[in-house]
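In the current project phase, the collection of sequences with tokenised folds has grown. One resulting record follows, to show the layout:
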Amino acid sequence: MKSDWVRPMFLVAAIYDLVLGIVFLVGYKPLMARLGMELPNHAGYILLPAALITIFGVGFWMIYRAPRRNRDIIKMGILFKFAFSGIVLWFYSRGEMPVLWAVFAAIDLVFLLLFAMALRAIPAPAAEAAA
């Protein structure tokens, strides 16, 4: 499978998660107010996930820079996207999650599939393949 699409896709993923994470880190109150969403009873419920999204954005930037060397970060990204999209979509299907989160989860589901395809497209380093 050709892998020339992998680096640009991880650049998009990096920008997406960095922007999303930073926006929620610095501006979740006005954003949620504008969308008519209730604020949680503690800022940590928004800030911790926002920080993790930002950190994964940095990881996706690292993959963009050197996909083969950072295959393990791709695996972590798959788990991250699976956890977020799975949890959000489960609660959304029960009517317990705002539509905004479901939109983010749907986008992450697409990234999850692309990450899995990227992992297959990028050859493992020789030492890993021999193990």
Summary: The chain has a mean pLDDT of 93. The chain has five helices and no strands. Residues 6-122 form one domain. The chain has one domain: 6-122.
